[in-house]
Amino acid sequence: MIVANNYYIQPLQVPIAADLGISESLAAIAAALTQAGYALGLLLILPLGDLMDKRRMLTVLLLLAATMMLAFSMTTSGAALLPLAAAIGISSIVPQILPPAAVQILPPDQRGAAVGRILGGLLLGIILSRFVGGIVGGTLGWRWLYAIAAATMIALLILLRRTLPPLPPSYQGSYAALIRSLGPLVQRHAKLRSLSLIAAAQFAAFSLFWSRLVFLIADQGLDSPAIYAGWFAPIGAVGVIAAQFTGRPQRRIAAHRIVALGGALMAAGFATMTLAPLHLLWLVPAIMLLDLGMQTSHVASMAQILGMEPAAGSRLNTIYMSSRFAGGFVGTLIGALLWPLGGWMAVCTAGVALGATSILLAHAGQGLPAPRQSCD
């Protein structure tokens, strides 16, 4: 539910632009800024999960999220829309605190399955955000949607405060030293660098599609494109199933092959999407392939990364997820730039190219050395 804050805007760009009297391009930039804010929050705030009690972090971030969502629902200008969108992205990093917490608590043989379940919940939140954003936002209006989401953040805060145990820090030192330690982690783990680049390419493709879907539907002459876009979102639930499956130990399949398979599925999904202007039902198998491919690769990558140095789990997650959502920001911007130039076919071509790029990166990284443990 928390990660959904980052995605409500995607099916609602058209009605938000109309209500505020701004261009659809500016609304698309606001959608991109939620991704940029998320990446910034991952880079600068998530590492604190190694330095302070994670329960306390969750409290502060949920209060910030509720405040920003309420302010967004009340905004009346495009100028205020952009910084609020970025702030919503920053405050939405709450779910990323959970995988390192699971690794901190659980024994090694249970971590992969636990990460798979958590990431499955994250994907479900992304799926529901587009469904709820399209259906509820298209019916009640986008302002009511954001106001309801703000109240939901308060309810979640109360629930987490009552159920989550204290999660003490695993790093001793200053915040500045914590941030400086990110560089040595990147240098030490070649596999981390490879998987982060792959994640950036794949999430760029993922965001490219979902940020442009509502515009494809609008071009078909259908009324309330946000509602139609919302109905397509649950199709991606197959990715939740993938999260459960690929989070289990995969001793017979090399990790780089799983990651490359994810890229191939995503490229196939974009190739299928080229038929969508003929009939929107072609989006059904395309979305299944896209979400399945991304989540298959993502879960396999996370299981590797979080096992590198459990004591540095939040920082490893910071590096990987910052790269991933920086890719999402770039993908959303690519969509906004390509749409006026080549429309849907340009978007699909870029998506295939990004999927193919991730396959090449996966195979190039297969011979990289295993992570070296450190006590940093």
Molecular structure report:
This protein is mainly α and 376 residues long. The chain folds into two domains: 1-167, MFS general substrate transporter like domains (Growth Hormone, Chain: A, Up-down Bundle), CATH 1.20.1250; 181-368, Up-down Bundle (Growth Hormone, Chain: A), CATH 1.20.1250. It is 75% helix and 0% strand. Helix 2 (24-44) runs parallel beside helix 4 (78-91) and helix 10 packs across helix 15 (313-364). It is globular, with a radius of gyration of 20 Å. The two termini are 34 Å apart. The relative contact order is 0.16. The mean pLDDT is 83. This is Arabinose efflux permease family protein. It holds the Pfam family MFS_1. It comes from Ketogulonicigenium vulgare (strain WSH-001).
Rounded to an integer in angstroms, the radius of gyration calculated over CA atoms is: 20 Å
Output the CATH homologous superfamily of the largest domain.
MFS general substrate transporter like domains
The CATH topology of the largest domain, please? Answer: Growth Hormone, Chain: A
In whole angstroms, how far apart are the ends? 34 Å
Overall morphology: globular
Assign a percent range to the helix content: over 70%
Number of helices: 15
- Give the averaged pLDDT, no decimals: 83
Oligomer: single chain
- The number of domains is 2
Count of distinct strands:
0
Q: Could you name the CATH class of the largest domain?
A: Mainly Alpha
Approximate strand percentage: under 5%
What's the helix-strand series?
Answer: HHHHHHHHHHHHHHH
